[in-house]
C-alpha cells in the first residue's frame, strides 16, 4: 500500500483546495509520485536522511530514518513543501452551539469507526477520554498496569460506574524487559519518556491482538485539543503562549511529534490504531470552541467534559487522571529495572542508557 488512511481522490482534492481537514483520520504515503502527510501527522511517514528517495511507514526498515514533515508534500528525494497548516478559525460565540457541534463531530468520528469492517478493542484507563471512546464504540475495554497501579483501580471503578465489562492485564517486570527493545525499535526512539509512554500501548495492544482483535481504539488527542494540561492554565515556562487559547494551540502543534510514537507502538503489536478524537471533524469543532469552554484554574477540558457528561456518569466525565506512564507505574518500574542493571540515578539519563543497553543485546 502506497497511501494509508484516505482514498487518493480525497487527498488530491485536499491538495487542490489546500484543505487541511478534508474529513479523514489522517493519511500519509505516496500519491501520484509525491509523498504526502496530513496536517497533524496522524499516519507516520519516514524518509532516509541521506537518500530521501527511500521512504517507509516504519522507521526500522531504514538505516537513518527522519520523519517526513506533517502537512507537507514533496517528490521523493526533494525538499518537502508545506501545503497544509493547522486552521485558526474564529471561535464560535454561542457556547451551546459550539457544544452541539462538538457532540456531532465526536459521534461522526465514532460512527466511522463502527462502520469499518474490523474488530475493535479499547485501551481503557478510567479517564474521561478513553471512557467516552469505549462508551460510543461499545467495544471491549482493556486496562494495563502493575498490580498496585492507579490506572487499574481507576479503570475498575469507571467500568463499574458505566456498567461495562473490563479486561485487566497486570504487568510483571519481565514484561517490560521483554518489550522494551521491541518498542524502542518500533518507535525509532530510545529516550526514557517516549519508551515509557509507548510501553503500555504496546502491551495492551499485544493482549488485544492475542484475543483476536485487529484494531485498538485510544483516547489520544483530547488533552491537546481541549486544554487538558496544567501548563496551558499556568502559562508557565513550558509554554511560549501568553493566553490559554494560544497554549492549547501549541499543544495541538505538538501532536505531529507525539503521534508517530503511539501509532507505531500499537502497530508493532499487530493492531491498527484508531483515534476517534483525532478525526478531522473533531479537530475542527475543537478549534472553534470559545475560550470559556477550554480550561481555567478550576476545570480543564471544560467543553469536552460537558459533552462527555451526556454519555458518561458525571463522576467519570469530571475525573482527572494521571499520565499513562505514571498511572500504570511503568515509569517507576522501568527506573527500578535500570537501577538493578547498574544504571544509577546519579548517571545522566540513566533510564535511556538502560534502554540502549537492551537494544545492544
From TrEMBL:
<dbReference type="InterPro" id="IPR050795">
    <property type="entry name" value="Asn_Synthetase"/>
</dbReference>
<dbReference type="InterPro" id="IPR014729">
    <property type="entry name" value="Rossmann-like_a/b/a_fold"/>
</dbReference>
<feature type="domain" description="Asparagine synthetase">
    <location>
        <begin position="102"/>
        <end position="234"/>
    </location>
</feature>
<feature type="compositionally biased region" description="Basic and acidic residues">
    <location>
        <begin position="1"/>
        <end position="15"/>
    </location>
</feature>
<dbReference type="Pfam" id="PF00733">
    <property type="entry name" value="Asn_synthase"/>
</dbReference>
<dbReference type="GO" id="GO:0006529">
    <property type="term" value="P:asparagine biosynthetic process"/>
</dbReference>
<keyword id="KW-0067">ATP-binding</keyword>
<feature type="region of interest" description="Disordered">
    <location>
        <begin position="68"/>
        <end position="91"/>
    </location>
</feature>
<dbReference type="GO" id="GO:0005829">
    <property type="term" value="C:cytosol"/>
</dbReference>
<keyword id="KW-0547">Nucleotide-binding</keyword>
<dbReference type="GO" id="GO:0004066">
    <property type="term" value="F:asparagine synthase (glutamine-hydrolyzing) activity"/>
</dbReference>
<feature type="domain" description="Asparagine synthetase">
    <location>
        <begin position="255"/>
        <end position="343"/>
    </location>
</feature>
<dbReference type="GO" id="GO:0005524">
    <property type="term" value="F:ATP binding"/>
</dbReference>
<protein>
    <submittedName>
        <fullName>Asparagine synthase</fullName>
    </submittedName>
</protein>
<feature type="region of interest" description="Disordered">
    <location>
        <begin position="1"/>
        <end position="23"/>
    </location>
</feature>
<dbReference type="InterPro" id="IPR001962">
    <property type="entry name" value="Asn_synthase"/>
</dbReference>
